[in-house]
UniProtKB/TrEMBL annotation:
<feature type="domain" description="Photolyase/cryptochrome alpha/beta">
    <location>
        <begin position="1"/>
        <end position="49"/>
    </location>
</feature>
<dbReference type="Pfam" id="PF00875">
    <property type="entry name" value="DNA_photolyase"/>
</dbReference>
<keyword id="KW-0539">Nucleus</keyword>
<dbReference type="GO" id="GO:0045892">
    <property type="term" value="P:negative regulation of DNA-templated transcription"/>
</dbReference>
<protein>
    <recommendedName>
        <fullName>Cryptochrome-1</fullName>
    </recommendedName>
</protein>
<dbReference type="InterPro" id="IPR005101">
    <property type="entry name" value="Cryptochr/Photolyase_FAD-bd"/>
</dbReference>
<feature type="site" description="Electron transfer via tryptophanyl radical">
    <location>
        <position position="317"/>
    </location>
</feature>
<comment type="similarity">
    <text>Belongs to the DNA photolyase class-1 family.</text>
</comment>
<dbReference type="GO" id="GO:0003677">
    <property type="term" value="F:DNA binding"/>
</dbReference>
<dbReference type="InterPro" id="IPR036134">
    <property type="entry name" value="Crypto/Photolyase_FAD-like_sf"/>
</dbReference>
<dbReference type="Pfam" id="PF03441">
    <property type="entry name" value="FAD_binding_7"/>
</dbReference>
<dbReference type="GO" id="GO:0071949">
    <property type="term" value="F:FAD binding"/>
</dbReference>
<dbReference type="InterPro" id="IPR036155">
    <property type="entry name" value="Crypto/Photolyase_N_sf"/>
</dbReference>
<keyword id="KW-0547">Nucleotide-binding</keyword>
<keyword id="KW-0274">FAD</keyword>
<feature type="site" description="Electron transfer via tryptophanyl radical">
    <location>
        <position position="240"/>
    </location>
</feature>
<keyword id="KW-0285">Flavoprotein</keyword>
Amino acid sequence: MSHFLQEWGVTRVTFEQDPEPIWQDRDMKVKSLCERQGVECIEKVSHTLWDPHRIIEENGGSPPLTYAAFNQVAEIVGLPEKPVPNPDFEGISLPVETDHDQKYGIPTLSSLGIEPESEEQASPCCRYMGGETKALKLLLSRLENEKKAFALDLSLPNQLYPDLVGMPMSLSPHLRFGSMSIRKFYWALRCSYAQVHPNSPIPASITSQLIWREYFYCMSVNNPKYNCMEGNPICLNIDWYNNEENFKRWKEGRTGFPWIDACMRQLVQEGWIHHVCRHAVSCFLTRGDLWIDWQKGLEVFDRYLLDADWSVCAGSWMWVSSSAFENVLQCPRCICPVRYGRRMDPTGNYIRRYVPELKDMPMRYLCEPWKAPLKVQEEANCVIGIDYPAPMVDHREASKECKEKMERIKNQCKGVPHVAPTNETEVLSYMWLRKNTVENIEESIHETCSHLNTVSL
């Protein structure tokens, strides 16, 4: 970088603050280099709606304990700044040398040794396109969809009635890479609601997903172990199973549950899946059916998701697995991969697209094809156990065992807050408390764990 500063005659460097701890060493090195070279360095908060350090300061020096508490602190801080007007580039000429691409061009994936893992990945059904132009066009389409919902007094319409086979409406990859301003998105949603309901207060629900993003960023700021279980002061150290075969079947979309398999195959093929799909596969892997470590799932999401974000992705996995973020563990009934699949994919088009083995299976049996009579399976050219795997677990039994274990953990962990400590003394005492709590949990659920491990095979 020092070479470029001198070659280009740089006098000022500006960049967007990235508050996540994994990037802090990089940013400090850039600031130090600029100082040595006599280059002005300007850092601005724009990747998040609020400066997370300000939120922590207003909360007394530690991150807000829960999502609700975060909202209370954010209300004290005030609404995020509005986006600045679009810049005017008229009259600005940037010289481009003839060998620019040779010097500064972005290398191709092939030149980096990265090739598609499958034919489906090389030619996906839905291809996500990057860049600000695409992001702004997608934003306009998204806002039209939102306005229709606002007129019916609904919010987050694509969560209630997701279009799983249409082009993705999510802007999360653009937020991840900075081709869409988070403040522009936030204020566009508020302005759209005000246009539909000019005399009504703006409900928090219309921007709730963006606020969850802020909350996870805030929780990760001073926690370099945020994406880990061991050594992470906000995460319960649970004795998850280490079953590589079950994990592999989940990752490859061979669980025998068509809804789960469709979600996982789309993830690997296209680099994106809807929020309802993420929730389903995460619950299935962890506290719902397989009782496998959430860190394993995080590795898969980090590898394939276009919008994989260090703070948000890890935060979502800890939350879904009931490992963090509440005073007392919330353990609602886990997602049923059959009933939830029917609800989210009522036409069956999504499953038929991503699990083509079942494309001719009657809708009645599509989400649980193992219940179809053999004659029906043969007519659909999909015999369970031969053309498509049988379910890897008995969901009713597996989920029952998982729930019992989670309830025991919940009872053992009452009084153990899910919040990052603020100093070294608190860290040591906090980790000691978690270690001893989990040791008691492991001893009390050993017999149950052994039984479920047999079921999972």
